[in-house]
Amino acid sequence: MNANAQTTHYPAAAVSERVETRTLCVLVDNEPGVLARVIGLFSGRGYNIDSLTVSETEHEKHLSRITIVTSGTAMVLEQIKNQLDRQVPVHRVIDLTTTSPAIQRELAMVKVRGKGDHRMEALRLADAFRARVIDATTESFVFEITGASEKIESFINLMRPVGLIEVSRTGVAAITRGPEGM
Amino acid sequence: MTEMTGAEMVMAALADQGVEHIFGYPGGAVLPIYDALFQQDKVQHVLVRHEQGAVHAAEGYARSTGKVGTVLVTSGPGATNSVTGLTDALCDSIPLVVITGQVPTHLIGNDAFQECDTVGITRPCTKYNYLVKSVADLPRALHEAFHIAASGRPGPVVVDIPKDVQFAKGEYAKPKEFQHKGYRPRVKGDPDKIRQAVEMMAAAKRPVLYTGGGVINSGRAACESLRELARLTGFPVTSTLMGLGAFPAADPQWLGMLGMHGTWEANWSMHDCDLMVSVGARFDDRITGRLDAFSPGSKKIHIDIDPSSINKNVKVDLGVVGDCGHVLDEMTRMWRAGGYKSDKKALEAWWAQIDRWRAKNSLAYRNSNEVIKPQYAIQRLYELTKNHDTYITTEVGQHQMWAAQFYRFQEPNRWMTSGGLGTMGYGLPASVGVQLAHPNSLVVDIAGEASVLMTMQEMSTAVQYDLPIKIFIINNQYMGMVRQWQELLHGGRYAHSYTEALPDFVKLAEAYHAHGIRCEHPGELDEKIREMIEIKKPVLFDCVVDSAENCFPMIPSGRAHNEMLLGDAATRVEDAVTEEGKVMV
After folding, report:
1. Is the pTM of this model over 0.90?
2. Which ipTM did the prediction report?
3. Is B123 close to A40, i.e. CB distance below 8 A?
């Protein structure tokens, strides 16, 4: 029994288990407040949000798709899915990490400032990462890069010594492989 | 299709939903609805004295009838005052539709007078909520609100209606068959899983049925199915605070309530069982105590309509998602059809063990001829009211636990208490709602003097509507449960748990034009309780009790079920738990 348990009437917190990361796809009615409902659920119950993207995907049916990257123990992850699923405007919750092989992509725009060698090095690295130049001045570039989050992460790290100024990222979008839809 | 204003739609929808009573309080942003209410006679309005009281009254109404409770309040403070009631109803799964007025749509977000972000504030404390910005959406929102509140795991739904929408004209038609576009709670349990559950039950040697408020929410038929399943299997039955009455307390298979202040036999059975069948209960922390020591040797089956309740606190071996009424019914049907039999010999040994636990007499207390013991007061109240058509509500604290321990409920929907949220001040307004639904019944709020002062103003409502509620105050001058914890955990430093100035409850009753009774001696208790029952008006009964009494049994902080504390009057027969019993763990 820990010290906390002696002075409160609540059971002690569970011993920590292994934390896993999951990508969840949540199909919701595109109605006012639906995003607040999902985010409120995460903050209210102390769940993690590593990344969240949302956009209307089926206009006629007023359906939006929320992609959430979250982490927690196995029991917490099951809770997150069940808690999302019981929300009135939620149609479906799909765990893209466990139910099927899924592709994940993220887009980032990366602003770099520099002259001379730094500028050349930035261009070379961008080329290696298949990042495109979408804006340029004599002393700066804005690169557009698409890929898995880890790839974007390493690109950004490489840009630091050659004059990284600013990054804007979209968060993760994900879809299953193969011919079947969800 | 009929053309009408938004305000008229509200009244039409309430009438179409069969609403007879609505609890509310008028204000600027809800005046058009009050105007429409004034001009109809299908729905009767009950004017409360505070919006929190309106929501608790609607909860009492809902819990004692099984219907949806309804509330009408204004914007801003009207809505914020209802938040405690909404949270209470969400925690205890009580179906409510709460209609709130809102400032006109063009002023929303402008910090207008009596504006608040009602849907933002109530989102985490409702099952669902609506801000209806167009009169065209209003009929659907209103009817959906009732459907969502009552179906699946019930809960409160808020419909926030701006004043201009209440004035606007639109088309209204009573909907026929109603189906929500996405929301479809699962009612029927998976038959394969139900069969698996039945097989596990037939193989069990030390089983226990652990039932909760879900059985009562599911309805009378679910309670009947539970009783039948218990008879068929011969299994012992215990229940959470919320589930009292689903299984009759007079039945020999009844173990009493479990959990922090549950009986010795109920908690030991939970700890030592080899199969736990949880029905409509949610493994709340007041039930489980220390999680890693919770019923360590058992297989666990969990039947619940809410998938998120399963494996939330305790990992179970078999989860069955579905309405408990349906699942229990299927279980009894399969048990019979499959010719399943309980392990009779094992059950006999199990019951012999349970009887040894029972011999502890864990609810025992030392009575007195000098002062009224709170337990004795509730026992006498039970004996003198059990042959009446009685409904009991409570506030929160020691008196609530003593009521749960000593008032023996035989039927469902007779017991209205704030379980999940633990809202002091719940019982008095709840009793107003219960009495309104059951005008000829005896409705008693077993109260504490601290709790009841939180919503005392609703006495005025009871008097206005001739609701003869009986407020039975167990008055120990302390916030008793707080004092008990301070005694046991904080070195007896009673920080602010003693109320140095209390009103004279008899005079207070008279000020409300109600009836006041004070009782200070055990010898006069019966006579005065009888007087309370006889009087056909609201009564404040000030029952002055021993101020130092503690509530036992008790599972102390962070301990397991088998580490309960007992009061010093409980049987000191240490072999009530034999070595044999310990081996059975």
Report:
1. yes
2. 0.88
3. yes
